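The instructor's notes for this session suggest beginning with a concrete chain rather than abstract definitions. Hand out the sequence below and ask the class to guess, before any prediction is shown, which regions might be ordered.
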Amino acid sequence: MASFCYQYLSIVANDFIFFSGDVQTTTIAVAIASSLCYSIVWAIYYVVRLAHPQHQRENGRRKSASPLAYLPNMGAKFTIKRPKTPTTGLYQDLIRFETVLCNQVEVPCVRCSKNLADPQCRFVTCKLCCFCPEACDIHKRPCDLECRPCDHLSVITEINLSECQISQCPERIGYFGSQLSLLNLSSNDLGEVPEEIGCLRGLKEFYLQKNSIKTLPATLGSLTNLQILTVSSNKITSLPDIWLSLSSLQHLDVSHNEISGVPDSVRHLRHLHTLLLQHNKFTSIPDKICQLKELQKLDISDNCLDSVPNSLGGLLRLREFLASSCNLATFPMSLCQCPSLRTINLSNNRLKLIPVEVGRVGNLKELNVSSNCLQYLPATLHINQLHVCDISENPFLTEADNSDVQLLTQGPYDTGSVPTLFELAFRTVVSGDSYDLTTLPLILQETVGEKKTCTSCGVVFLNLYRSSLHFRQFAHSYVPFLSQLCSAACAVNS
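After discussion, reveal the predicted structure:
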């Protein structure tokens, strides 16, 4: 029957259509046959593509010329973010994800690093490297998954998922590989950081600011190459004891949290040069911080500090000290022992005096003591030589305040220009900072708090030879400066 039908159709096609002698009929027949063949070919190609979607992804990769323009299986739209003007900031040439549609990320097999790990594999391995197929939901049953090479993953070094409104990290992003050097998850709604982040051994910059994170995982201690860590504007109450292994860390920002202390291992951050602690719940500067010999910037503003430790003077490389709005009543004398100090910001506190020693900090360029309780400045402070000097919002004395000015203006003491024996003993004892106050005689213990520093020679003394208040013009007003001298010789030299 089939052979009969075939012969019948062949006769009809040959005699009545293609070779009928009618040119129009033949043309139409050829067009229909060509369209039918073309449709059949496209149908076969489409079926092949559905059966092998991997080829489509590989073709998409080859079209990408940028090393940062591809992150597989994110279901996201992304573009390269390049600043319009040259900057030296932290966010140059990053992958910018505009919308995130799913959380699955393809990562290399943790065992061979040659193939992609199969989805849902609990061991994050490929089909050939699964540690225990019997315990793996996807590998314990026969599957037709093919091993897919992950050569394209080696080119991705920086990922930016900031401002994507995500509430959790993309699944398995911690297994992305050691080639990832920057991860930005800032300005989202993250409540926690997955422990798998510790697998990113090559990570150098990690940004988590402006989230809702309460605790940091202990696995962050595995990021031995980390140089910048920013977790500001979160809900962190304490820091994990992970800092012993983070010896490469240079920049640490934990500001705008609820932290009241730091672990002992912080003192091992021997390369740390920037520490931001503002807007927390510190009541004092921990002594561990004063052991960071490479520290250059310390910001502890907007904390309620009781005092500043004397050990702060051991920070020989400290360049910036910011402690505004800390409710400080006395100027930290230890700052005067930091030879590299260039910037001091103690605005909005309760300072009544600025010590004479501040004027002898040789590299000081910026001073902000605005909004305090200062009535005068020390004569050693040359405010006109500073690049930035803000002394506004202080109740400075004026020439019209006769009674207060006369109270600060005193003549030579009655015993003449030769100091008393008690004065000489006092100067000898308190001239250094190594003395133990409890071992001193009671009469000296009671008078140590009254010690002064000569504005001329810098000697520590007790009884004034002479003090005087004089006014100098600064900006559009006159500022009072107090000089205090220890001897007649200093009075002559001044």
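Then share the key points. The chain is about 15% helix and 15% strand. Residues 402-493 form one domain.
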